[in-house]
Amino acid sequence: MSEKEGVFDNINYIFRKYSGKEELEKEISKLQSHLFELELDVNTANKRYEKSAVSEKKAVAAKQEAEEKLKAAEVRLQTLEHELEKARKDTSGELYFSRTDRFSKQRTEEFLLALSSVKDPADSLVTVYIAAGSKMENLEYHDDALKVLDSETIAMVDKVDSPTGLVLFYSPDFMITELIVPPLPLKRSCWSTGNTFDTAPVLKLLRTRASILFLVAHAGESLIGYSHDSENLDSFQLVKSSVKAKHAKGGFSQRRFERLRDEDIAHHIDKVKPALRDLIDEYGDSADYFVIAGDRQLAEEMTSDLALDIERVFSSSDIRVEKHNIPDLMKQLLIYRRYRI
């Protein structure tokens, strides 16, 4: 086995996932084999019926039993074939990812190193970097890039909503088609082909110890803080206030309740703003990014009047603030998303 085949086999072994259609096809194959066996049973029963008048009743019973089993199996096969055809029609126009994951920085690095070990003598491995705020159509030599990618992969890349950009690793034989979405923005769009994947830019971003101001906004409980190296918390403050839970009932009671809840939320925003200004006054000059997570609309209200000359990054991480998880907050903020096509 070549080095390339060995690496491909290892990656496929780790990430392979079968669809429901494949399971249906397997069961249909088994039933078709079973049908063949039942047909043999019917033929055997017919011969026994013809040859033995003495055991006529026994042969007739065996023949009937075999024919009933055959009929039941045929009905089951028709049902499965109908289900399979329906599944094919339902998914024929729908594109979906075969796998999605949320990777820590360490897991992402391991994954990227595994991809970088893949080698192809034909120089056909494709790497595409799309910068934050850009799209595939903005790539330099876009038309040439389209020639080495299939239409389904291009559609899936366009489907991913990522304010920080993304990286595509693609082999024309479809053995590897992976998307990585980083938590911090990619600065440059480019694409290349070669005998290995170009993992260097995303690995450099992953290993960069950026200084980060952050806000995790939730009604009644918001966390603000600063990390000088993207790993350890230098400072944080949990801002808490009383906010009524959402009201399920309707009518005047609900409208009054919602008005009081809105007032509670406005009060919470007013508590967060001065604490955030103090944090920015202390660490704003040394911060590379301002990462915002939690309730985005609420966060925008909290930061609407801030004069902050730092790149803002909206995190896709769903972070719930609890005292016990605050020390690991940076790990939660800097999650990498992985999609397999």
TrEMBL record:
Pfam families, per the entry: acVLRF1
In this chain the Actinobacteria/chloroflexi VLRF1 release factor domain maps to 212-309
Give the source's domain of life in one word. Answer: Archaea
Q: Which residues form a coiled coil?
A: 21-90
**Stretch forming the signal peptide:** none
Organism whose genome encodes this protein: Methanolobus zinderi
Alphabetized, the UniProt keywords read: Coiled coil
Query: What's the name of the protein?
Result: Peptide chain release factor-like protein
